């Protein structure tokens, strides 16, 4: 089993900066297509699936290695090394952003810059920190998932995608339901119990923070914290609803990424 097959790595393009896209919980690399494809011809694109998601090799899931997000970060480091095109511009969504942050702190030589879409270093509140959830909130969320994943996806999809994005809700729910239930539950606990504030505060690379104006999972005050603690952060709050603006408003995400990469707008780049 090679690293490239383990993580179902796909590389396209022959010129320009190397953009590596990292998906979030319940997703796979396909959730980035509506944005990634727009950089065809001006960048090299690397897409992959975290172990247990999409068309990755789920037999490579290791409860010990993947007991925290550091195991997924080690996977990511191996992916970048196997592709051999670093340093990369890392573009990560949600927990996929956290995984990239940890990897970039461990191996900054493999990264040129970061773009974090609706990221959160910690979902639960703590002394001096607002994550948006109480421990009881997370316990209830995970208990519902343990009971019935299909019911859980139906319940949380409007918050994830926004109340009006019915097709996006359906796509995301279907993606979650394709994941092995045991792996999905494990990854959910790893995600919602994570506390990676130290890693975020240790980032030294240029970092674009892309927030959604109305995001139940990563409210704007979480972005406030990241903006204060990442020295080279530049922040854009998108006028969007939900946790997945790359799926619901790809035009806005693409435009922000082009500015981050110092690429011309799409109509001028054609």
UniProtKB/TrEMBL annotation:
Domain of life assignment: Bacteria
UniProt domain AB hydrolase-1: residue ranges: 19-255
A Pfam family: Abhydrolase_6
InterPro entries: AB_hydrolase_1, AB_hydrolase_fold
Protein family according to the UniProt entry: Belongs to the AB hydrolase superfamily.
PANTHER family, per the entry: ESTERASE-RELATED
Protein name: Sigma-B regulation protein RsbQ
Organism: Brevundimonas aurantiaca
